[in-house]
Amino acid sequence: MQLRRVKIFCLNLMFTGGNTVSRIKDIKLAPSGEMKIKWVERNMPVLRGIGEDFRRTKPFAGLRVALSVHLEAKTAYLCRVMEMGGAEMYVTGSNPLSTQDDVAAALAAGGMQVFARYGCDMEEYESCLCSVLEAAPNIIIDDGGDLVHLMHTKYTNLIPEVIGGCEETTTGIHRLKAMDRAGELRFPMVMVNEADCKHMFDNRYGTGQSVWDGIMRTTNLIVAGKYVVVSGYGWCGKGVSLRAKGLGAKVIVTETDPVRALEAVMDGYEVMPMREAAKIGDMFVTVTGCSGIITAEHFETMKDGAILTNAGHFDVEVDMAGLEKLAVEKYDARHNIQGYVLPNGKTLFTIAEGRLVNLAAGDGHPAEIMDMSFAIQALSAEYLAANRSSLKPGVIPVPRELDEAVARRKLSSMGVEIDSLSREQADYLGVED
């Protein structure tokens, strides 16, 4: 199917090569992006092996795949692995500040349809999402739920073309489950984020490292000795807290879930409401997936120089609109750091406009971590393609055998061997060996 062009708002380059129409910043950036992709390919052995399998089996032959994931090198390599499997790829980002223009250029130069640019406004961002959906995709790979939302509101006529999709992150799964409960989800969606090889490693170790990579790279400040407030003690919050503690910070956790709060206490952290933590914290990291975590009532009690960051998917956890309204002055304090002077004379700083700090101010999760997450994505998409006739609309878990297959491949790539159950042990436990 030939791609239909949609209205172009602000993208300053349309690159056409063969049958490809891409909208990116500058195709001349492609060599830099290609270098990044080659580096992560070297460090993603599980996904590389899956790509070799796909090249032989072609599970996506004849299928169109629309992908909206933070467009950096690891995502680009996932796109290439899908392409090895025969997929016709239509690619965009999932956040206006996480696209790396050189990576987008490298994919476009290789023949993919790419619609993304760093720093686009929300109108342009939605235009890019629309561009990939206008290809009438058969499989959707989403991060945060924007593609699925648009498909169900603006492109309902194309839903019959959709076999199903995969959702990458917690926020997107919350949206999908709400749609499913309301009976509104019209095709199957695999909950990739709920696979053990995704959330246990990506959310804990990936977020834990990449958040602090982004904060330290952007601020050039020390973490040791500071009070760090982490809002939310799910898998991401656990990782952010653990790394902050390892860097020498004094960690405070805020939570609404009593079980998670108790876990944080037993892990050695102080736990208190945000109204109290706001008075103490030097650095704040929100990782709740909810809105209104840090608001005007907290801004007014914070220390002069407090730094506010968000590691949740959307820029709603720190009330940026409220901060803008409250401030008497706003200025750029450093690249990607905005200073807000309050009426009481104190200045608060935000990183990356309250967007995902690890991607909008860094390179995202380490390649070795995304190796597992994107392996789950690729195998889940293969599962959809192979079982298209039997799957019903709704949210579905990642099959356990896919989770275990990724874990085994990862262990093998690390040179690690494990035991196997004997026939007698399997019989004792009542499981298949």
List keywords for this structure.
alpha/beta; eight-stranded mixed beta sheet; seven-stranded parallel beta sheet; 17 helices; disordered N terminus
Q: How would you briefly describe this protein structure?
A:
Helix content is 43%, strand content 17%.
Protein model, in words:
By secondary structure, the protein is an alpha/beta fold. The protein has an eight-stranded mixed sheet, with helices on both faces. Strands 5-4-3-6-7-8-17 form a seven-stranded parallel sheet, sandwiched between helices. It is globular and about 65 Å long. The N terminus is likely disordered.
> How many strand segments?
17
Our measurement of the CA-to-CA distance between the termini, rounded to an integer number of angstroms, reads 46 Å
Enumerate the strands of the largest sheet in spatial order, edge to edge or round the barrel. 11-10-9-12-13-16-15-14
Query: Spans with pLDDT under 50 lasting ≥5 residues?
Result: 1-12
Helix content: 40-55%
Strand count, sense and closure of the main sheet?
8 strands, mixed
Assess the beta-strand content as a share of residues. 15-25%
Indicate the radius of gyration in whole angstroms.
Answer: 22 Å
Total count of helical runs of at least 4 residues: 17
